[in-house]
Amino acid sequence: MATAANTTTTGTPDGETPGSVRVEITRLRNEATRQKALAHRRAEFWAKADVALGFPAALLAGTAGATGLATADARIPAALLALASAGFAAGASFLRSATRCRANKRARQAWAAVEGRATVKLAQGTPTPDDLGELLDLRQSALGAYNGEDPQPGQPSVTAG
User: Which DSSP string do the residues of 10-64 spell out, in sequence order?
Assistant: First the structure.
């Protein structure tokens, strides 16, 4: 009669098995994939919102100026155009669509870094708890990328490579 092979896995000192680390890294990679796609869609939305509010504001401001200078009778329509332009500009300023677009682009890059690093860790063989810790640190950076600021010229980027 054949005997069953020893299929027990050895755990790490903190009680984690290599299989559970692999499962957690796979979960992080899947989360990063979803978050990257979501950040991409949000960046596209805010870029469109920025154009949708900024272009009419600029167009109406120019038209109001030209109309106001054309004749004295056109002052009231020019004032209405200037008021509409100010409304669009105030809406664009209030929504901060350009800032939100940049934040989502930063987040998209950070989530792509998490996804890529997790894929590499999974492809290298048996991931360790240290690998998981590194990925969790990258995840925290990706979560903070929404609130972060753009790097100043001449300063290194915070995105892990």
Answer: PPPTTS--HHHHHHHHHHHHHHHHHHHHHHHHHHHHHHHHHHHHHHHHHHHHHHH
CA quadruple 80, 81, 86, 91: dihedral sign: positive
Write the pLDDT tens digit of every residue in 106-137: 999 999 999 999 999 999 988 999 999 999 99
CA 85 to chain CA mean position, Å: 30
CB neighbour class for 18 (10 Å; exposed up to 12, middle 13-18, buried from 19): middle
Task: Tell me the pTM.
Answer: 0.68
d(CA 93, CA 21): 45
How many beta carbons lie within 10 A of that of residue 145, not counting itself? 21
pLDDT digits (tens, 9 = 90+) for 19-41: 789 999 999 999 999 999 999 99
The residue type of 149 is E
